[in-house]
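Now for one record.
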Amino acid sequence: MKHLEVKRLDCQQVKAAEVPALFKTEKVEYHKIDTVDWEADYPYCPHVEFAIAHKGDAIMIHYRVEEDSVRAVSGNDLGPVWEDSCCEFFVSPDAEGGYYNLEANCIGTVLLCNGQSREDRTPAPVALLGRIDRWASLGRTPFDTKNGAQAWELSLVVPVSSFFRHHIVDLSGLQMRANFYKCGDKTSRPHFLSWNPIDVPSPDFHRPDFFGQLAFL
């Protein structure tokens, strides 16, 4: 199981567009999402890395991706963003409250749900989704597949209120289990990558038993 310390940054209001520069200034470390769990069927491995930090009342995530093509058809939150060029953060604050899947395509359209398993998912209230600030280097307008080498970035500022089945006030000192993914079910080269390895026969990101560990400093 991989372990990751999530650095606390002393900042107040932070916009998603400011996160890349902030992480550079604060020397926040980047980590690769490069485990090809189902290589026999889905061998493609684009270059993907993420950095994560927090400011007590919000998590900040920055993804950097290089891949052979991009797809961004889903333009409405709670839609099938996993079919597009998509980065995902699955996190379980505790053993009882289930886990959250926060999925975002390359234009910042998000899907956020909570539940105990793949079949038992409750979507986040729309009002909460609106509080997740997003910045996408490709813009926010949907588009179909763009072929050829593509590089894109995505930043999210996720307030603790996004964990709508929990009552988190300050992230400092908390331990959570989590995994980070990159996928694209309907891209020209479907792929399924994870940060912490998943040992099951076929693609399935809804496996909290294979989450890694996050320690919020």
About this structure: The chain has a mean pLDDT of 97. The two ends are 19 Å apart (CA to CA).
